[in-house]
């Protein structure tokens, strides 16, 4: 796949009771994840998204602190990827964004995300 067909994105993932894997780098035993409802995860992400869009918070800084994905150590950076490499809702949302845009809440088997397209 040529780099022309790829996108690059960062994301913030909040896992919840319905997530496929109920553990993360910051919650290895899944104690918080197992008690977090999907609704609570969505509300947390909505608040984070508002803070980022208003300029109160920086996407990469928040990702490093709160994201349940191991990409948190890179400010949420997932690097480049092409079609078929991510879960379908995540892929579709990322390709629909313009560079620099931040998605609404995206639901996948992993949890709920906000995505920032970076290339």
UniProtKB/TrEMBL annotation:
Organism superkingdom: Eukaryota
The keyword Isomerase appears for this protein: yes
Composition skew (Basic residues), residue ranges: 13-23
Catalytic activity: [protein]-peptidylproline (omega=180) = [protein]-peptidylproline (omega=0)
PROSITE patterns: PPIC_PPIASE_1 (PS01096), PPIC_PPIASE_2 (PS50198)
Gene Ontology MF term list: peptidyl-prolyl cis-trans isomerase activity
Keywords for this protein: Isomerase, Rotamase
Pfam family of the protein (one): Rotamase
Purpose of the protein: Prolyl cis/trans isomerase with specificity for phospho-Ser-Pro bonds.
Protein's name in the database: Peptidyl-prolyl cis-trans isomerase
């Amino acid at each position: 796949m040529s780099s022309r067909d790829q996108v690059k994105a960062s994301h913030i993932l909040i896992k919840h009771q319905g997530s496929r894997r109920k553990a993360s780098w910051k919650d290895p035993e899944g104690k918080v994840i197992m008690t977090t409802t999907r609704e609570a995860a969505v509300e947390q992400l909505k608040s984070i998204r508002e803070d980022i869009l208003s300029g109160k918070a920086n996407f990469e800084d928040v990702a490093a602190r709160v994201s349940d994905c191991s990409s948190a150590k890179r400010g949420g950076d997932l690097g480049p990827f092409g079609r078929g490499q991510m879960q379908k809702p995540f892929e579709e949302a990322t390709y629909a964004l313009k560079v620099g845009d931040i998605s609404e809440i995206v639901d996948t088997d992993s949890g709920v995300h906000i995505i920032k397209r970076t290339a």
